Amino acid sequence: MPAQAMTLEVAVISLVFGIALTACTSSMGSVNPSKTVPEKEPEAKSRLFKPMMWPQPEGELPPAVAPEGLTLIEVPAFVETPPAFYEVRPLGPEAMGPIRVMDVTYPKAALPDARPPEPVPVQPKTGPVLATTGPVPLAPPAMTNSFGSTNFDDNGTNTGFYFIPADPIGASGPNHVVDVVNVSIRFHTKAGTQVFNSSLKNFFAPLAPTTFTFDPKVIFDQYAGRFVVTTLEVEDDGAGGDPETSRILVAVSDDADPLGTWYMLAINSKTLIGSFDHWADYPGFAIDEEAIYINCNMFTFRENGGGYAGVRLWVIDKGFDNNGFFHGGAVSVGVFDPYAGGGSETTTQPAHVFGGGPSGVGTFLVSYSGLSAASIEYVQIVRIDSPLTSPTFSQQYVNIGNIEDFSSFPDAPQSGSAVGVDTNDRRALHAVWVENFLWMVTTIVPKAGDAGAGETAAYWFKLDTTTLGTISAADQGAILGDDIATDTFTFYPSIAVNGAGQAVIGYSASAASIFPGSYYTTRVPTDTAGTTSGSGTLTAGTDYYVRTFGGPDNRWGDYSGASIDPTNGCMWVFNNHAMARGTGTAPEDGRWATSHGTFCITGACPADMFLAGITFTGTEIRRAASRITTGKNVTLNSGSNLTLRAKDKIIIRNGFALNSGAALTAEISATPCQ
Predict the structure, then answer these.
(1) Residue 561, beta-bridge partner list
(2) In angstroms, how far is CA 159 from the centroid of its own chain?
């Protein structure tokens, strides 16, 4: 159909907002006998410092001190637990017998029964040995810019302690990238200039954290044009006395520039499940147009054994159009048990939604963890409808075929050391929804007879949500990394997908002939089913890595970050790699470092474009598959001619300046990215 064009040559553009929000409703739900949990529970933890830190603190930590240069404001929260509705779709006829969760869910901290590192014989090779069999996949686009960020030593500078694992994740906005690692947060310009650095404890000073917090995550909300950060806090003295606390801390910037005001919220996540209080671990983190979604694994405190008790989900009303959280007002929060109606309780990730989303749907919760029945594996999906008004949870399993035989989950070998690198487990790690497809990533061990059998492999799924009641697997595949080195292990993947259906998957990789490093691959709609491009290098490792702080695992990860540039649909990845050894007492002198990288695929187009802090001077066309939104400080100089082209919406907000002699054309088109 022809585009509908509107040419504007006026100096004032009216303010346009999105959909009004209502108060959040939710339910904890009752225990349902149809739910399944892992058959084994972990034993009590020997200590509860997350992430692992060295040296161990003596006495109370010093109070948080707010960093200079930012305005940090605490806002009140109101947590509600009204009823929710649940629907469960049974397994198909191919499933002979009950479905099982093959992985045990355990806290991401040092446990007495955690999987020990598996020694790997060191092979005397001086460099990577590339595989020589099979077709060589096409290389992905090269990085157009990359730069380093926080490393192992920086946490010592920020906090006075050292921490593992890195917990790296980053997000791109219009003019900045924000990244978090285990206890630190940094802002850079997109050119790589650092403009802010702080411990997360000090960043969240208005909420008075008493620990350094753990498991942080960051996303850019492309609907509202704001960065959103979360981190967790837990205190447990092991004896049942005070303090036994669990909190979720959340912060949102007041616009697309992180160097300004942030609104902050503390949620009490200490939750009574059955007869015992539980603390929240390993957050899933996502947004849609209306809400922020945070779900966590729940564990008893140490006095009650540290056992796993399922998943809880917190839904935070953004309040964008009713002076709520995103404007510094009071916050409505709902807490849910997403499996109260049935299903398999295991590590769950909410999908970051792009575009309009299916009508009435908030987001999708995804999980894997080796879900299996009769040699068939499944992805579990829980769809959340009407999350802020009448929340409904609809659960189903998606058949993904036989991809594993559940042999041991090995650590990755590395050059220079017989100690392997921890690859974690089969939990879902990241998910996004774009243009009727739900993408997610995990790590598997391919079954005997398949390529990469016996090695860990980053794995991706593309699920078709066109028919919501019967979501199906549209495509899937393993990332083997054999073009990096022979017998490469890949693990800790993350994924981002733009409006043109182009995907980037960032991941870690290691092999007997290389050091642990950070890599990426891409997939475009014309690629052969089940395949991705060759491996691109974000930052190769430069030394071997061993750092356990006395624990049983040589921990890595626990995740990585990938995001879409909201101005042009290009890709950003953020991950950790092994840097030169040092800082510590031998033999434990491994150090991690992190880096950002960006590149663009021909034809890139964001699902949702957000523009801020930009001046147009010539003739330009900006395209988005769903919507285009402008924020503060968007200027069209005299003589400029800007065309905005999108399929669903074009939203011009306060801060847009159209000077005399400039022209703006807004087009609604069925095929805006072409």
Answers:
(1) 574
(2) 24
Distance of CA 560 to the CA centre of its chain: 7
CB 356 within 8 A of CB 47: no
380, β-bridge pairs: 367, 397
Q: What is the CATH number of the domain that holds 257?
A: 2.130.10
Contacts of 277 (CB under 8 A, 6+ apart): 244, 270, 271, 300, 301, 304
The region, left, alpha or beta by phi > 0 then psi within -120 to 50, assigned to residue 469 is alpha
Q: Report pLDDT for 484.
A: 98
Same-domain check for residues 266 and 414? yes
User: Does 549 lie in the same domain as 473?
Assistant: yes
Region 401-405: mean pLDDT is 96
Cα 1 to Cα 4, 44, 345, 447, 671, distances in angstroms: 9, 63, 46, 48, 8
Which of 570, 599, 628 is the C-terminal boundary of a domain? 599
Q: Residue 38, SS3? A: coil
Strands 503-511 and 472-479, by their bridges, are unpaired
379 is a domain residue: yes
- Residue 530 has a pLDDT of 97
655 Rama sector, left if φ>0, alpha if ψ -120 to 50, beta otherwise: left
CB-CB contact of 485 with 513 (8 Å):
yes
Higher pLDDT, 27 or 252: 252
For residue 359, the enclosing domain spans 35-40+75-599
Distance CA 443, CA 428 (A): 8
pLDDT at 121 over 80: no
Return the number of other C-beta atoms located less than 10 Å from residue 194's C-beta.
Answer: 13
Domain count, the chain: 2
Strand, coil or helix: 567: coil
Q: How many beta carbons lie within 10 A of that of residue 198, not counting itself? A: 21
Whether residue 508 sits in one domain with residue 543: yes
Cβ neighbourhood burial of 468 (10 Å; 0-12, 13-18, 19+): middle
Confidence (pLDDT) at 330: 94
Inside any domain, residue 619: yes
Q: To the nearest whole number, what is the mean pLDDT of the chain?
A: 87
Claim to verify: residue 533 and residue 627 sit in the same structural domain: no
Give 210-248 pLDDT, tens digit per residue: 999 999 999 999 999 999 999 999 999 776 667 899 999
Same domain, 457 and 565: yes
Coil, helix or strand for 302? helix
Q: Which of 304-308, 397-401, 580-584 has the lowest mean pLDDT?
A: 580-584
Cβ count near 261 (within 10 Å): 15
Q: Is residue 657 part of a domain?
A: yes
- What would the mean pLDDT of 33-43 be, rounded to a whole number? 46
Query: What is the average per-residue pLDDT within 124-141?
Result: 52
Bond before 55 cis per omega within 30 degrees: yes
Contacts of 107 (CB under 8 A, 6+ apart): 42, 45, 50, 281, 282, 297, 299, 306
* Token duo for residue 202: 């000090």
Q: Any idea what DSSP says for residue 446?
A: B
Instruction: Using alpha carbons only, give the angle 108, 380, 268 rounded to the nearest 5 degrees.
Output: 45
φ and ψ at residue 327, rounded to 5 degrees: -120, 15
Q: What is the DSSP string of 460-472?
A: EEEEE-SSGGG-E
User: Is residue 673 situated within a structural domain?
Assistant: no
Tens digits of residue pLDDT in 530-552: 999 999 999 999 999 999 998 89
Question: What is the pTM assigned to this prediction?
Answer: 0.90
Q: Does the structure show a pLDDT above 90 at 57? A: no
Whether 633 and 588 share a structural domain? no
Higher-confidence residue of 82 and 184: namely 184
**Last residue of one domain, picked from the residues 540, 569, 599:** 599
* 537 DSSP 8-state letter: E
Residue 649 sits in the same domain as residue 566: no
Nearest-angstrom CA–CA distance, 185 and 195: 11
Whether residues 232 and 284 fall in one domain = yes
